Amino acid sequence: MSMNWPPVDRFPEEMSDAYIDERIRQSPDVLTGLGELPAIEAGEELRRAFESTVVPTAQMRFVLRNMTSKARAYARYAYGDEPSILRRIYSGIQPAREMRITLLASLAGAGKTVTLNAFQRLHQDTKVELRDHASLGLKAAWMLTAQNGVSAKTLLLPHFRHDGEKRKLTLTSTEVSRECATQGVAILLGDEFQFISRSNKSALTANTIFQLTKIGPPVFIATNYSLLHSFMRRGQEDKQRLFSDVIELKPEPRNSNDWLTIVRSALRVSVEFHPLIEDDAVHYELHDLTFGIDRLLTNLLHHSYLAMRERSAPHVTIDDIRKAYASIHYAASRKEILQLEAGILNPSTLPADLTCPISATPC
Questions:
Q1: What are all long-range contacts of 117-123, with beta carbons under 8 Å and residues at least 24 apart?
Q2: Ramachandran sector of residue 291 (left: φ over 0; alpha: ψ -120 to 50; beta: rest)
Q3: Model's pTM, two decimal places?
Q4: How far apart are CA 120 and CA 220, in angstroms?
Q5: Which of 59, 129, 130, 357 lies 20 to 30 angstroms, CA to CA, from 259?
Q6: Nearest of 167, 123, 163, 172 to residue 143 by alpha carbon
Q7: How far apart are CA 233 and CA 192, in angstroms?
Q8: Strand partners, 250
């Protein structure tokens, strides 16, 4: 393999924190003039801005480096030179054995989808010029997002470029592997797989994942704890395949620099929150009221803004945040937070969907 070979070198062997952060950070423009909109409409604008904000954290960088290493290793193996690429495109070479599965596990709303999307920003599409073939576009990954009732086939169909190929697609053929090679895909990313089936979750979902491992690239699946518990009820052989490589994303600790950065970034989104940006006491209380879970922070700040609008005030205060926490809108999240807090001292009290079945420590 020559130096600067795009199919492999698009995945750097080493990436500094600055290199990663520059490519994945998302900071929307500060919202102004929300007070001129009806409260509900303004609240939805605010929610979208919160959800589009991405703050790199140490955990996220660790996962992205792990994913990048797996993608580079596969690219070196499958796309290491021009003949290797062309063989895979035209013969649809499939792996001699199934690729290893990596599960990225966390509480719901703790940043799995954000991390998968960040990988695609970190490694954007490129192309390679070939001597004996037209240039090829290279995609780092296929994102496979599940909804209730889907199969491996329906997950893969959107990634085929031509309608004719979509019509004849069968997972018993080499068509999937050939299309994957033609696009230079080096990793398969799965999200929301808990929605594949609600009636027989573990069997259908596990079988779908096993089918994906036959395509070629490594398989990286984001999963909630509830799906892990269902996998734990599978037979020994399935558990060995599913749990050979698990990464756990945990809520950010209360005193971590990453948590403070996340909160400050969220409070910068709208001028109504700006008086709270430098108030560390507010940052710590926000952790107490969200358990450090990103999605809950978004929900709480959204309802805090609406509480501010109810009293026709110009800025959100800690009392607005406390009112939002005590509201019916946040009741389910509040119950979950209290369970998680109790679980720190007594892990046996935690419901199954709030604890990782293979973690050494509770959340």
A1: 117/143, 118/24, 118/54, 118/56, 118/60, 118/64, 119/64, 119/67, 119/68, 119/187, 119/189, 120/189, 121/23, 121/24, 122/15, 122/20, 122/23, 122/24, 122/64, 122/68, 123/10, 123/11, 123/68, 123/71
A2: left
A3: 0.92
A4: 13
A5: 357
A6: 123
A7: 19
A8: none
Determine the Cα–Cα distance for residues 238 and 203; give it in Å rounded to an integer: 10
DSSP assignment of 295-344: HHHHHHHHHHHHHHHHTT-SS--HHHHHHHHHSGGGHHHHHHHHHHHHHH
Asked if the model's pLDDT at residue 152 lies above 50, the reply is yes
Given this model, what pLDDT does residue 100 score?
A: 84
Residue 33 near residue 19 (C-beta atoms within 8 A): no
State the pLDDT confidence band at 350, using cuts at 50, 70 and 90.
Answer: confident
Write down the residue that tokens 């889907």 correspond to: 150
Query: Which neighbouring-strand residues pair with 359?
Result: none
Query: What are the Cα distances from residue 224, in Å, to 108, 195, 232, 355?
Result: 6, 11, 13, 9
Q: How far apart are CA 128 and CA 136, in angstroms?
A: 5
- Classify residue 346 as exposed, middle or buried by CB count within 10 Å of its CB (0-12, 13-18, 19+): exposed
